[in-house]
């Protein structure tokens, strides 16, 4: 099973970082209000960064490291590793 760290950009330009086994599905959950309290209050969100991790422990450690980055550092990371345009249903 694969594990991923992800960053979503919220409607107000802020970033939310998390981990999941399926980040596209998780972004849809955030947009449906089933995700974290933060994203429920800052919808809609757009998936902007995904990074695969070998196991859940690595994913949790990397998530913590990503969360400690400043907004500018997260923005630079996202700009260096852009995702393809959103597919059907990803921005829902």
TrEMBL record:
GO MF terms, alphabetically ordered: endonuclease activity
Segments of this protein annotated with the region Disordered: 71-92
Domain GIY-YIG: 1-77
Keywords: Endonuclease, Hydrolase, Nuclease
Keyword Thylakoid: no
Pfam families linked to this entry: GIY-YIG
InterPro entries: GIY-YIG_endonuc (IPR000305), GIY-YIG_endonuc_sf (IPR035901), UPF0213_domain (IPR050190)
Similarity section: Belongs to the UPF0213 family.
Protein name: Predicted endonuclease containing a URI domain
Organism: Longilinea arvoryzae
């Amino acid at each position: 099973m694969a594990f991923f760290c992800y960053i979503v950009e919220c409607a107000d330009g802020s970033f939310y970082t998390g981990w999941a086994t399926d980040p596209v599905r998780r972004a849809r959950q955030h947009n449906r209000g089933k995700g974290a309290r933060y994203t429920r209050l800052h919808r809609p969100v757009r998936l902007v960064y995904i990074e695969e991790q070998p196991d859940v422990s690595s994913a949790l450690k990397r998530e913590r490291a990503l969360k400690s980055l400043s907004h500018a550092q997260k923005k630079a990371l996202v700009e260096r590793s852009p995702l393809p345009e959103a597919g059907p249903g990803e921005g829902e």
